Amino acid sequence: MKAVAAALAVTGLVGGMGAAAAAPPADALDHFYGQRLDWRPCDDPVLDPAGAECADVMVPLNYAEPRGATMTVAISRIAATDPAQRRGVILSNPGGPGGSGLDFMVGVGAAMTPDVRARYDLIGMDPRGVGRSTPVNCHWPRGFGLQSAGVDAVGYAESVVAQGDLALRCATAEGERLRHISTRNTARDMDVIRGALGEDRISYFGASYGTYLGSVFTQMFPERSDRMVLDSTVDPDRYGPVGMVQDMSAPNEAVLDLWAGWVAARDDTYRFGTTGEQVRGAVLDLIQRASARPIRLGEFEIDDHTLPMVLFVGLDDPRNYELVANQLRQIADAAEGYPVQPGAELDTMLAFMLEARPQDSSAQMAIMCGDVSAPRDPAWYWRNIEATRTTQPVFGAFANNITPCAFWAPPAETPTVVRNSVPTLIVQSTGDTRTTYPGAVAMHRALSASRMVTLRDVPIHYIFGRYPNACVYDAVNTYFRDGTLPAEDRTCLPD
């Protein structure tokens, strides 16, 4: 446990105790808000064909010290198609946290009707710490800061050491800068972007974690918030490395049941069993085998920390059932000693998870750990893991596992309490495995002037621009076009 102790010692020195940031002088940020942007070609295979241009926005590293160090935030712009009808900009965030959003609005824009596209410049953004913005790079040996705890106490001890090591690497590589990688600072960056674009207010489209970011912006800058759309919505009171992740376990187990039934109906192809229960049993057996001896698949070794994450990544979209079944069949065949090479998608996933190729996701942990503190005691997590073994046998050990945040310095600011009346459209599927339906209902309550559009009986995460549905798409396009929220909450059925 020396790595754990070292991580606690080092990260405890980075940032000190959490506190609200001191307000800078009223005019200290003027040169950020008034900066002139240098627009240029994006040099990007997705953005360039869309006609986008890119710029870097200079922002303070620490808003309490605006004359100190700075960072850059990379943004893209796809211009409104009709300057005569233009009414403003739509900023965006695809989730993560830590997801690159520079090209996000290409896909979202494709779901917009022509009369919406005519009215808005679409603004993509790599948030601070991410992608082409001044990046966080902790030089992790693996890509993902989340993993399953494994099947027993030995596996959990491995997780504790591994997660402490990730935190230590971040503290060593990034030091004081970590304190300022946070959602509240990203919201401040968004307001600087608004000013630099010459806009009085911004409209917004956020998915997944991007819904939390959007809600924080409405809380901090309500007078600057225009037409806000939150797709697949976080519970603002559960956001962070503990509650939000714990809430993922039950819906993932439910979707695993749906997938297992689909696989059982195709036993001639996948050979995991003819009932959902048998398929589940095969999955659990494979996890146990991976614990006893990691499964060699191509150049990778898959253990009980990784195997549940393969299912977690794939099962957020019902259109992936065949892909996930094929991936699990490859892993099962490899466990039997057959010379199997992973398919392209699985190879890419494992290269990221196990070897941090092409890069790690340390920015994700930097943001979450920088927003909300996590319990420190490894025994607390172990009790929760053991308590879910029976009811959540595949995903409970992931959703309740310790994260690097247990070894992180306390946040620099207290978490944002979201309670306001900024008009907002919330769209949500009932079967979402990442941001759960009850979480969206909680956000709906927190935003008292919001309306909620529910897509029923579809286990999909992030709808508009990803999973076509005429009812949902109409609600989003109508709001962006006319500023008209539904008169009351609405339920949509699958097309």
Structure description:
The protein has 495 residues and is an alpha/beta fold. It has helices spanning 2-13, 30-33, 104-110, 114-117, 153-174, 183-196, 209-220, 243-246, 249-264, 267-270, 276-292, 307-314, 321-335, 344-355, 362-371, 378-387, 396-399, 437-446, 470-482, and strands spanning 40-41, 53-60, 70-78, 88-93, 120-126, 202-208, 225-233, 295-297, 300-302, 424-429, 451-455, 490-492. The strands form 2 sheets. A 10-stranded mixed sheet has the order 1-2-3-5-4-6-7-10-11-12, sandwiched between helices. Strand 11, helix 19 and strand 12 form a beta-alpha-beta unit. Helix 11 crosses helix 13. The radius of gyration is 22 Å and the shape is globular.
How do you describe this structure in short?
The chain is α/β, with parallel strands linked by helices and 495 residues long.
What would you report as the Rg, rounded to the nearest angstrom?
Answer: 22 Å
Name the structural class: alpha/beta
Summarize the main sheet.
10 strands, mixed
Low-confidence stretches: 1-20
The portion of residues assigned to helices is 40-55%
Shape, principal axes of CA atoms: globular
Strand order of the largest sheet: 1-2-3-5-4-6-7-10-11-12
Give me the count of strands: 12
Beta-strand fraction estimate: 5-15%
Q: If you average the pLDDT, what whole number results?
A: 95
Count of helical stretches: 19
Q: What's the N-to-C terminus distance?
A: 53 Å
